[in-house]
Amino acid sequence: MSDARTPPRTTPPAWRPTGLTWSDGGASLEWLSPAGATRSSALEVGARLGLTVGADRRCLGLWWDGRRVPCVAGARIDAAAKSGQCESCAAIARTRSVATDTTLDDPREFRVYLAHHGSVVKAGITASARGQNRLLEQGALSSLFLSAGTLVSARRCESLLTAALGLPQQVHTARKRLARWAPGTTAARATELAAVVGRAATLDWPPGQAWEPTEPADHTPAYGLPEAGLAPARQLDPLRPGTTVTGEVICRIGRDLYLLVPGLGAPGPTTSGDVLLVDTGLLEGWDLTRADPEVPGTASASPVAAPGGTGPGTEQDALF
């Protein structure tokens, strides 16, 4: 008899999603390999998505000086966490974040913008080189730029708009999702943004920012969000190993996906029974592999409450 032994089967290294990303008006699901390499899968409207959940969910590390640094502990992440980053990595990332105002020495040009989120217009800043990507990442329905200049002056302008006009600098995810039920018309949003520009023009604009208001940009075509809105019947629950998520992409906005899933549930008076809302933050860090997109998914999902409802799926609508 031969002493030759069959080599043990090896499992390919897991590629883990880092989230939904936006570039040049297009959406992609980005993936990270154990070696630190990245790749992207385009998520076009009409694409069929099929994912199988692997055995574990681990921290994706953080970006530092233009490169991704792995999590030293390779920490496990709870299935219910809204991102694929452990507390330690998230804390380190905040120490060099423009968004959290912990860095003010960035030499790039920054622009002050207004973003329309349905029931509210917010003020914010973004690096000029990023173009519209920051607005697409946050799911703004429409937007415009007010001025361009240094980071410090951009922060001053943002604070001025908050203090003088009462514009928020952040909008809760629940409020953004609510606006997608009835986003209104492009023209109506443009009129509202123009009115805010008129009020801002009366302010003593801080030096260091050149006042250059642009025409409003409508982002709903990039998302695939219809003017009539989207009313999902259910939203994806935290994932469990061995389950699958499948469906047809009908809209991607911010970090959310809306999937058409035939037979998902009976439609109610104000919901579409076949639409599933997927927060891609729940996918981040999982070991995910391909699933047959034509086979019904097995991951659990909870009902989404209609606007003004108090049932399952209702989230507190507040700013943070």
SSE blueprint:
Layout (H helix, E strand, L loop, with lengths): L15 E8 L2 E7 L5 E5 L5 E10 L4 E3 L2 E3 L17 H8 L15 E7 L4 E7 L5 H5 L4 E8 L1 H15 L7 H7 L6 H15 L8 E3 L5 E2 L1 H4 L8 E5 L7 E10 L2 E5 L11 E8 L6 E5 L10 E3 L17
What would your notes on this structure say?
It is built from six helices and 17 strands. The chain has a seven-stranded mixed β-sheet. Strands 7, 8, 9, 10 and 11 form a five-stranded antiparallel β-sheet that branches. 17% of the residues lie in helices and 31% in strands. It is globular. Strand 7 (110-116) and strand 8 form a beta hairpin.
From the alpha carbons, calculate the radius of gyration and give it in angstroms.
22 Å
- How are the strands ordered across the major sheet? 16-4-13-14-15-12-17
How many angstroms separate the termini? 71 Å
The helix content is 10-25%
User: Helical stretch count?
Assistant: 6
- Largest β sheet strand count, sense and barrel closure: 7 strands, mixed
Number of strands: 17
Order of helices and strands: EEEEEEHEEHEHHHEEHEEEEEE
What does the average pLDDT come to? 88
Label the overall shape. globular
Q: Stretches where pLDDT falls below 50 for ≥5 residues?
A: 6-10, 309-320
Question: Based on helices, strands and strand pairing, what is the structural class?
Answer: alpha+beta
Strand percentage: 25-35%
